[in-house]
Model the fold of this input.
Amino acid sequence: TFNFSAGPAALPVPVLEKIRDEMLVLPGAGASILEISHRSKPFEAIIAAAEANLRSLLSIPDEYAVLFLQGGSRLQFSMIPMNLAPGGASADYLITGTWGKSALDEAKKIGPARVAYSSAESNFDRLPTPDQLDLDPNAAYLHYTCNETIQGVQFATEPKTGDVPLVCDASSDFLHRPLTIGHYGLLYACAQKNAGPAGVTVVIIDKKLLERSADNLPGYLNYKIHADNDSLWNTPPTFAIYVLKLVTDWLKDDIGGLDKMYQQNKTKAEMLYEVLDAYPAFYQGHAQPACRSLMNVTFRLPSDDLTAKFLAEAKEHNLADLKGHRSVGGIRASIYNAMPVEGVVTLRNFMDKFANANA
Ligand code: PLP
Done:
């Protein structure tokens, strides 16, 4: 079955096979990854390799710390304002979908947060042009969501923020293409779409920003403490970090890096958008064409009955988890890194046939 779930999402098959092969006894450790200490040599080697893989795939400069945290991306919605906007400083937010709105709502519980752009009026189907941004030049940071998982809108490049540090929720498109990490103050992503299983969240932070973390923050919520302790201040999610290491091995060794991954992702997304555009009266894409996501393809059919029929028949073709989020309706095909081209071809052919039979 091809799993089009928005997350937790499918993992690459070679990674699953490796987990199966190493589950009882991790080579060199004499026990399972689930049983060894996070302070043991074998685990130290795993977390160091996971970080090295991320640094190599994304060319992360030495001036940035890489943290492996728990609490999912939602905990970042709170940790970011707690750490980066101390003393009542105000932060700016771009609201281009459900997740950006959730990040803003959490930030407001901590301190002042402004909306520098929102596409709520059009149900988050678009992204801002540079002249639509109402930026505060003194903001503590500007937060945005580079890929809105529910609406399927994605920034192709980062918004320009001048001297204000850019904070990016990259949860649903992390590692789908190369990035210039130097453009960001902080970039974070829960692992369960492109990087591994649920349980670990990657935070890449400019070390200069660590100076903002106040000593009186609760220890777990303080970025500086995690950076000073190489993400081993408390017991980290050892299994999730181990799988993240395997996924990043796969990206490096099997795929050949993020340029190659990006090419594959563009090819996969183009196949589905081509079908939408071939039947514009039947498949109505949610995102405006200029900001279509390469990861989450969202569209509606002419009626609820046809949507139900589409989902039922898709299942018969081994195409699973295609139901759209209730706030957008219709269909959402999440085609993360691990979705093979073959899965997308199967879906494209099914959509083609379904439109011909029902339009
Ligand atoms: N941000 C984005 C863009 C997401 O897609 C999600 C989850 O799907 C989250 C944040 C929340 O992540 P978590 O469930 O790990 O807290």
The chain has two domains: 13-255, 257-358.
